[in-house]
Amino acid sequence: MKRSQIEELQAIFGERDVLTEVEDMVVYSYDASHAEIRPEVVVFATTTLQVSQLMKFAYREKIPVTPRGQGSGLSGGSVPLENGIVLCMDKMKKILDFDPANRLITVEAGLTTSDIDPVAGEANLFYPPDPGSVTFSTIGGNVAENAGGLRGLKYGVTKDYVKMMRVVLPQGDIVTLGNKCVKHVAGFNMEGIFVGSEGLLGIMTEVTLALLPIPEHRESALAIFNSLDGAAQAVSDIIAAGVTPSTMEFMDNPTINAIQNFKDCGLPRDAAAVLLIETDGEKNSCISEMAKVEIEVKKNDILEFSRAESSEERDRLFEGRRVALNALASVRPNLILEDATVMRSKLPDMVRGITAIAEKYDLQVGIFGHAGDGNLHPTFLLDMQDKEELARTEKGVAELFQLAIDLEGTISGEHGIGLEKKPFLKDQIGGEGIRLLQNIKKTFDPLNLLNPGKMFDMPTDQSA
Ligand SMILES: Cc1cc2nc3c(=O)[nH]c(=O)nc-3n(C[C@H](O)[C@H](O)[C@H](O)COP(=O)(O)OP(=O)(O)OC[C@H]3O[C@@H](n4cnc5c(N)ncnc54)[C@H](O)[C@@H]3O)c2cc1C
């Protein structure tokens, strides 16, 4: 980038908030996936106006911009594919308005997700979406990926809580989309288009989110199974019995042992699989729901069903689930974590299919995830320096996506497409689906300068 262009960026952001040193570029060249491409410049926004000025500059100079929250994404979304500028949003972390009467909170997009609850909790409210990354991901990143979480089964995902947002469009215009009312149908559902847009259509700078009352009571239990099939079938049976637990997390034997080696969370090393189950709500209904859960799991090849007797015991079990990814990451030099998702009733087929793929290609796989909403995380453990193992793993991953599609599921339940799943999106939504996405992108970003090269390619005549 030219000296004069750097100086213009320094005039917008201040010298301290513009980085150009090689060491800094390395730090912002990757997220939690595998892609690694260095930007030319990294800037840190503190106001919406700066973001707008940046995009006007980028459009004039035809320089690509990649928005970045905390870089915890698992699909390469914030990796700057075409060099250019990385725009960091994590200094925009103010809580702008807390409105308990309307159960709303308005925050800057760089706020860490878990920073909402201490404020909301003062009025006995909470923000339900809780990705495993809740303590470090940003709200902007959550909205851009439509992040899910451990409570998705009962409470839904990020899209269910986004009411309104302030967005800087690719050419620098600032717009407010959505509304704070419970009902709002004036125009298209524009805020909805931005949920899951992976930073391709605009940059969210402020978001208004809905909150819910904190449930009165929680019951937590650990169901230990002799077989993977038993655990998967139990999930289907619990839902079919009319119970909606707030959490139903699945962990298989390799994951359990990786967790126990990483940190003792009291999980049974010899179990084929466990389900971590929680019901919440009014105390009596919560207890009776857990009683129904117990009946259903006991029909399914169970070794033991134990309830957490104290909040310490519960926290220990949940800690195990939260460190699952880090624990698996410590087993082999690399891992490929997927989030192919199926309907809950197809979970047993999915688990059987993953096991068959692992056997076919002789792969080391740990499976954990949000089983209650059919969203498993088959995690392929490998050494990427071993090209033969990498090639086998890539075949296994491709087959996993096809399996999800064949089971009427999706190649991504919550991590998005980004770079990692881009080659597979057409298999999911077809050529017409890709063309529709391209046309929407072109309407917002005619020069293809905002996060280019992610999710799908633009036809070459439309590129910058
Ligand atoms: C240990 C671990 C556990 C995880 N658990 C979960 C989980 O349970 N559920 C889940 O859904 N995900 C999970 N993730 C993935 C990840 O944390 C989420 O995708 C999260 O939403 C990313 O937030 P971020 O702030 O890190 O965004 P980044 O990774 O920085 O960016 C993600 C995407 O959002 C875009 N973006 C970021 N900010 C903005 C903005 N303000 N405006 C427009 N676009 C923007 C970026 O360009 C990029 O495309 C996990 C990741 C890790 C490492």
Topology record:
Blueprint: H1 3-13, E1 18-19, H2 22-27, E2 41-44, H3 48-61, E3 65-68, E4 85-88, E5 95-99, E6 104-108, H4 116-120, E7 125-126, H5 139-145, H6 152-155, E8 162-168, E9 174-178, H7 190-194, E10 203-210, E11 212-213, E12 217-225, H8 228-240, E13 247-252, H9 253-262, E14 273-281, H10 283-297, E15 302-307, H11 311-322, H12 324-329, E16 334-337, H13 347-360, E17 364-370, E18 375-382, H14 387-406, H15 425-444
Helix pairs in contact: 1-3, 8-10, 8-13, 13-14
Flavin-adenine dinucleotide is lined by residues 31-32, 66-74, 77-78, 89, 109, 131-133, 137-138, 140-142, 144-145, 147-149, 198-199, 203-204, 325, 414-415, 451.
Tally of separate helices:
15
Major β-sheet profile: 7 strands, antiparallel
How many angstroms does the end-to-end distance come to? 16 Å
> In percent terms, what proportion of residues is strand?
15-25%
Inertia-based shape: globular
Give a list of the ligands: flavin-adenine dinucleotide
Overall number of strands: 18
Query: Which percent bin holds the helix content?
Result: 25-40%
Structural class comes to alpha+beta
Would you tell me the overall average pLDDT? 95
What is the spatial order of strands in the main beta sheet? 15-12-14-13-17-18-16
Low-pLDDT stretches are none
Radius of gyration of CA atoms, rounded to a whole number: 22 Å
Oligomer: single chain
